[in-house]
Amino acid sequence: MVNVNVCSLSGETVAVLDVLPTETISALKDKLHNSLISASIFDIHLSLDGACLDDTTFVKDLNFGADVRLQMIRSCKGAREILFNSPEVALQLAEHYDALQDACRECIGSLFIDDEGKARSC
Questions:
Q1: Rounded mean pLDDT of 111-121?
Q2: Strand partners of residue 46
Q3: pLDDT at 60
Q4: Which residues pair with residue 52 across a beta bridge?
Q5: Sheet harboring 51-52: ordered strands across?
Q6: Most CB contacts within 10 A, which of 28, 30, 42, 79?
Q7: pTM of the model
Q8: What's the rounded Cα separation, in Å, for the pair 110 and 119?
Q9: Tell me, what's the pLDDT at 122?
């Protein structure tokens, strides 16, 4: 097992993960998604010494020193992407929308209808 410290860009430790050398960066990201509450609304990219890591790279192929520190870069997903890629978030959004009734109809509608009133394709 390898202990990997995942840090934010500010240097704050976000998570410490135990990974096998045979695991991929994609598997490491999955573990990170499962350990962070807000992970489903972000795309996560990991970097080592300023270079972005490819999802298919194996942990064993990286030249780690004694202190394994990866930097996590989070980029926000769009509302449509969150809605259509995460059933849990879609359910929470639907429940919230039901509670607000007409108060957010336009915002929700904008996910499906563009500025000209035409239906967006999913």
A1: 70
A2: 72
A3: 86
A4: 47
A5: 13-19, 2-7, 69-76, 42-48, 51-52
A6: 28
A7: 0.60
A8: 9
A9: 46
Structure tokens at 117: 């009133």
Res. 117: pLDDT tops 50: yes
CB 118 within 8 A of CB 87: no
Cβ burial of 7 (10 Å; 0-12, 13-18, 19+) is: middle
Closest listed residue to residue 80, CA positions, set 41, 29, 39? 41
Please name the helix (run of DSSP H) or strand (run of DSSP E) that holds residue 82, with its range, or none. helix 79-85
Amino acid at position 45, single letter:
H
Give the largest CA-CA distance in the chain.
57
In this predicted structure, the answer to whether residue 15 has a pLDDT above a threshold of 60 is yes
Rounded-to-integer distance, Cα 42 and Cα 86, Å:
12
Q: Strands 51-52, 42-48: parallel, antiparallel or unpaired by DSSP?
A: antiparallel
Segments in the chain forming alpha helices (H): 25-35, 79-85, 87-100, 105-109
Which amino acid is located at 24 in the chain? T
